[in-house]
Design a protein that fits this description.
The complex is a heterodimer of chains A (about 250) and B (about 270). By secondary structure, chain A is of the alpha/beta class. Chain A is built from eleven helices and ten strands. Chain A has a single domain, classed as 3-Layer(aba) Sandwich (Rossmann fold), CATH 3.40.50.300. Helices cover about 45% and strands about 25% of the residues of chain A. In chain A, helix 5 (about 110-125) crosses helix 7. Chain A is globular and about 55 Å long. The longest helix of chain B is centred in the middle third of the chain and has 40 residues, at about 100-135. Chain B is globular. Chain B has one domain. The chains are: A alpha/beta (about 250), B mainly alpha (about 270).
């Protein structure tokens, strides 16, 4: 379970202004909101990639910000999928995915077992390990890079997966494939998933609950059905705009 | 306390000057503090043996071995120019063998360390800032953190340690090349024999000069990668930000090398 309590964050201007949110154990949760409303910032506060000015994040009841040890434990429980994969340019796919395995396990586990884990992680994300393992990130397509990023996030066997705009920059075919992958992985690995996305339809289809941020505050939190039927004009306007953008994207693709 | 309300507002240009001075000072202290913290973090990672040997050796190769050709050229040119200039100035009045001392002292005390440092700023410092800046804006540094890996130990420390090791070696190389080139130039230009050159060089030579040269090398070798790593980690704003930060870093490193160089004589030569 992830608990966000009174998260405040400002850069040049306030981005998050007192966000309270609970993501239950084992659930798939989507976070929507217009661009620049602080979705990714909130996601990054989960493991202190961005430190809030005020507030606390608790993972399984333990504060992430208590001290270095609790932060280390929190990061070990979490797999983070970055918007643009954030693969290490100088490492090949094998070495990139290997970085997802905790250092103590790397020291104590036989190399064959490590190699098998990396192989299985790549197969889970529908990549052909024999083909991609020796490649460096610049030799991969955008979709493949994203999958390698997912493999790196899951190979450490996390309890929680944080997805930062997993479908951004992908064509509709790859978007659908990644969304299916998120659903399948969350079920197979029995993890809690928090997905930050601008793809409302995809998020509503995938997730058990959704929330919407607006102006740095939580505007809505509920089930996908409640979101669709919400009479909040801000939520409705956001849904309408997102639907129009999606239609435009589809038209451009065709 | 009564305030004299008739004093009027502070003139705008004075106010602007104080504001600029205040902001500038704040920026200098901000950078200095952050570089100090980075240095301590690198030291901690080194003492705890967290620095990967493979990355360290690779950085030694990149900074040291790959810099040899350009250091050879700058070292040789420094020696030649010093020799030619000295030969011109000493015509007639001073014994020619003094030229040997002039070339050796100038190359070892000043030209070797400073020119090598300036070369490293452009060749290595700019590269480190651009590389780390790109990693920062593409979230690779965040990825290290998210995987519970320490980017200081994995990225910063190998570069800083390699700078401290490679720089004295490069300065030693530049010193030797500069002296030999100066000696050959003195022979061709002023007709000074090799034995006379060495006689003059030995006449005013102190072993301490070599220590001085290497002390400069170690300090420059620490400062350049520390600043370049620090600037790289601070990069923001995409590709444009990487370019801007790299330019700032080169200016920052060059100024630091020259300021540190100016601090050496009062600290170590008196």
């Amino acid at each position: 379970m992830i608990e966000y309590r009174q998260i405040h964050k400002s850069f040049d201007h306030p981005v998050l202004s007192g966000v309270d949110l609970d993501v239950e154990q084992g659930e798939m949760f989507a976070l929507f909101g217009p661009s620049g409303t602080g979705k990714s910032v909130l996601l990054k506060t989960t493991i202190a990639l961005i430190q809030p000015d005020w507030g606390d994040v608790r993972i399984e009841g333990e504060s992430v910000y208590a001290d270095e040890r609790t932060l280390f434990r929190a990061r070990r429980k979490v797999g983070y999928v970055f918007q643009n994969a954030a693969l290490f340019d100088s490492l090949n796919v094998f070495e990139n995915v290997e970085m997802g395995i905790p250092e103590e396990e790397l020291r104590t586990t036989p190399r064959m077992d490590i190699a098998r884990r990396i192989w299985e992680a790549l197969e889970l994300v529908n990549l052909e390990p024999r083909v991609v393992l020796p490649k460096i990130p610049s030799e991969l397509s955008g979709g493949m890079r994203k999958r390698v990023g997912i493999a790196r996030a899951i190979v450490g066997r996390p309890k929680i997966l944080l997805w930062d705009e997993p479908t951004t920059g992908l064509d509709p075919v790859n978007t659908a494939a990644v969304e299916r992958l998120i659903t399948r992985l969350s079920e197979e690995l029995e993890v809690t998933s928090l997905v930050v996305t601008h793809d409302i339809e995809g998020g509503l289809d995938m997730c058990d609950r959704v929330a919407m941020l607006d102006g740095g505050r939580l505007r809505f939190c509920g089930t996908p059905n409640e979101f669709r039927q919400s009479d909040d004009p801000v939520v409705q306007a956001f849904v309408d705009r997102a639907a129009a953008e999606r239609a435009l994207d589809m038209a451009e693709t065709q | 306390m009564n305030v004299d309300s008739s004093a009027g507002p502070i003139p705008t240009p004075v106010f602007r000057w104080f504001r600029r001075f205040g902001r500038g000072s704040e920026l200098v202290f901000d950078h200095a503090g952050a570089i100090g913290v980075l240095f301590l973090s690198v030291l901690r990672a080194t003492v705890r043996l967290q620095v990967p040997m493979r990355a360290f050796i690779r950085q030694i190769y990149v900074m040291g071995v790959e810099s040899l050709p350009i250091v050879f050229v700058t070292g040789a040119l420094a020696g030649i120019v010093t020799s030619q200039q000295g030969g011109y100035q000493m015509t007639g009045a001073i014994p020619q063998y003094v030229l040997g001392s002039l070339v050796v002292q100038t190359v070892v005390l000043e030209m070797g360390p400073v020119l090598t440092a300036i070369v490293l700023v452009g060749r290595v410092g700019a590269r480190i800032t651009a590389e780390l800046g790109t990693m920062k804006v593409s979230e690779q540094i965040d990825a290290y953190h998210s995987l519970s890996r320490d980017p200081i130990a994995l990225i910063a420390a190998p570069r800083v340690l390699a700078g401290v090791i490679a720089m004295p070696a490069l300065v030693g190389f530049a010193d030797i090349v500069g002296i030999l080139a100066g000696m050959i130039a003195a022979n061709i230009d002023s007709g000074l024999g090799f034995s006379s050159f060495f006689y003059g060089a030995r006449l005013f030579w102190h072993s301490y000069d070599l220590f001085y040269s290497f002390a400069k090398a170690v300090v420059f070798g620490l400062a350049i990668p520390l600043i370049s790593v620090h600037m790289g980690f601070r990069t923001k704003g995409g590709a444009e930000g990487v370019g801007r930060t790299t330019t700032d870093a080169v200016m920052f490193m060059t100024l630091t090398v020259l300021i540190l160089d100016a601090m050496f004589p009062p600290l170590l030569l008196n």
